[in-house]
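As agreed, record passed on underneath.
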Amino acid sequence: MVKLLRRIARVPPTALLGMVIVLIYVFVAIFARWVAPYGQFEIVGGQYDDWSSQFLLGTDSLGRDMFSRLIYGAQNTVGLALAITALSFLVGGLLGIVAAIRGGWIDMVLSWVVDILMAIPQLIYAMLLLTILGTSTPVIVGVVALLDATRVFRLAHAVASNLVVLDFVEAVRLRGEGILWIARRELLPNMLAPLIAEFGIRFCFVFLFIAALSFLGIGIQPPIADWGSMIRDNATLITFGEITPVLPGLAIAILTVAVNFIVDWILTLSGGSRL
């Protein structure tokens, strides 16, 4: 217990604040059904009702409780972004490490494919593919994860390429170990810190990207609560000086800043600094 308290005391205040905020978001996302006073699809009032004890943040254009939909939006948006980021790291990280270990034509072909996918802005690719393939949740996960995996591939390939030329990797290669053994036992332990930091950064980008797609109407589809579509659906209130449409954007900004606080701390540790 004493050691745990000492470690916590060494964590900078910004990182602690980020961890607390992320834990709150995770708690709200997991227990949204019990935290939210109403269902995300439930029409409980009139159109654009004011803030009150019954509706803490008023209602939207269809009479649904904004506070409840904000909570369910955490579950839908954050959960989807987390799944996409995990999938992109599984695909991009694995291919990047394999390309670095094998080299030769495998490295050349994979790098060539990644260069092609990164040549056009990610949003343009996503809009094109989602328009063709549809906007169901599995399609969104697959398309965005594929596009984001290119960035993960670049990082994993660069870090792994610097490691595979070192003596300890050459030694296990001469011993006859396979690619998966080398990746799991020799490379991943030495790549963990930059990959964890990149996971946080990529999560923020994916999180913002999903919200942008929903705002444009090609992301998470109604009536599912999503912060990006909530901004679009209630944008009319800005004309009347209401801050309700700003709240989903504020939720996005707070989570992004919190994750970046944690990532900055991880990058400091991976750089060899001591707090």
Q: What stands out?
A: The chain has one domain: 67-270. The chain is about 75% helix and 0% strand.
